[in-house]
Design brief:
Elements lengths: L3 H15 L1 H4 L8 E3 L16 E2 L5 E2 L3 E3 L7 H17 L3 E2 L14 H9 L5 E6 L4 H11 L3 E6 L1 H6 L10 H10 L2 E5 L6 H9 L4 E3 L8 H8 L15 H11 L5 E5 L5 H9 L4 E4 L1 H10 L1 H21 L13 E3 L1 H9 L4
Parallel strand pairs: 4-11, 5-6, 6-7, 7-8, 8-9, 9-10, 10-11
Antiparallel strand pairs: 1-12, 2-3
Helix pairs in contact: 1-9, 3-4, 3-13, 8-10, 11-13, 12-13
Length: 345
């Protein structure tokens, strides 16, 4: 029999899929329109999909497999397939939260399988912002990770019946960032410009704003919460476009910004680049494809996205993903009003 923590991981997987239609009813990237050019003055064979997050994190594709799962037998099976796909298509891949390995040693194999299936690719370990130096070192060593994702999940924890209730994280993030290559990410509730500034002051140079619009952990945890109804937090947070606009207003030139949360199409990937993202993480959409249709369907989706993103970059008159931020764009009335009130545009 699996541990209570492993059972919780399986519940997360089941609920993420069950709630997928509900949490993906609207696409916040529809509020962003790229101004097209009829004269791109370039060609597909002049377009590169490579993008740079840091010197150590050079991605062959501008999108990657964002943190999904781990910690149970079912999660291990999924991670094996995801890692095999990542290896085939040279995609970076983040593990799901690895905190379970310190309470349930049997869960380690569900993460180790990632490196077994993808021996040479970029793998990101994943721990909470309260992780110790020793825990971070162990997690990274377990999967031979090139970097550590530190997740911020206050809203999730507060809805989770067994979740944390104290969130003093900045000092610990400062210590982790001084010792390891780190990416600090939200889990789907977004970040504001003050968050970005605080993280930069703590020595963080890679930030994943991960906004609302995709997998909703407030909804997932509320479905597991049989004691208190916290459905009022279902729509908590900033969308990914809102968060990217916040980041544009406060990022240092040396800070890399990653977008995730509600990325459901190649056009979303490119719009994130136009708003300033250096790379894009995709979790819920790819997991949904995998669960509904299997690994071959996921591989077909990634192959199609690769072609489409390359052609969209070309269509924008750009030669690579990071040139997209030079493109002009317009915002919907609602998103423009938000940006003006926040004085970020």
């Amino acid at each position: 029999m699996e541990s209570p923590d492993a059972i919780r991981k399986n519940e997360h997987l089941a609920l993420a899929e069950k709630l997928y239609p509900q949490t993906h009813q609207t696409n916040p990237f529809n509020q962003v329109q790229i101004i097209p050019t009829a004269l791109p003055e370039t060609a597909v064979d002049q377009t590169s999909l490579q993008t740079t997050i840091t010197d150590e994190l050079q991605l062959e594709r501008p999108f990657y497999l964002e943190a999904m799962t781990g910690g149970s037998k079912r999660a291990g099976q999924i991670n094996a397939d995801l890692a095999a796909v990542a290896h085939k298509y040279q995609l970076a891949m983040a593990t799901g939260s690895m905190s379970i390995i310190f309470k349930d040693p049997a869960s380690q194999s569900s993460f180790q399988v990632i490196r077994k299936q993808n021996p040479d690719g970029i793998v990101l370990a994943n721990l909470s912002a309260k992780a110790s130096i020793d825990q971070a070192a162990k997690a990274m060593q377990l999967v031979h990770a090139q970097a550590l994702e530190i997740h911020l999940n206050a809203a999730q924890e507060l809805v989770m019946p067994e979740g944390g209730r104290q969130f003093n994280w900045v000092a610990n993030i400062d210590q982790l960032a001084a010792r390891f290559p780190v990416i600090v990410k939200e889990v789907g509730f977004g970040m504001n410009k003050n968050d970005i500034s605080q993280l930069q002051s703590a020595g963080v140079t890679v930030i994943n704003v991960s906004g609302r619009g995709g997998t909703n952990f407030a909804a997932i945890e509320n479905a597991r919460n049989y004691h208190t109804d916290l459905s009022s937090l279902t729509n908590w947070g900033l969308t990914t476009p809102q968060s990217l606009l916040e980041a544009r207003a406060s990022r240092h030139p040396s800070t890399a910004i990653i977008a995730s949360g509600g990325i459901c199409s190649p056009l979303d990937v490119v719009k994130a680049g136009v708003l300033g993202a250096d790379a894009v993480g995709v979790a819920g959409h790819f997991l949904h494809q995998y669960i509904q249709h299997g690994r071959p369907a996921l591989e077909k989706t990634i192959a199609d996205w690769t072609v489409a993103v390359e052609r969209l970059i070309t269509l924008c008159g750009c030669h690579n993903f990071q040139e997209l931020r030079t493109c002009q764009f317009t915002l919907s009335a609602d998103l423009l009003a938000y940006a003006q009130q926040r004085q970020i545009i």
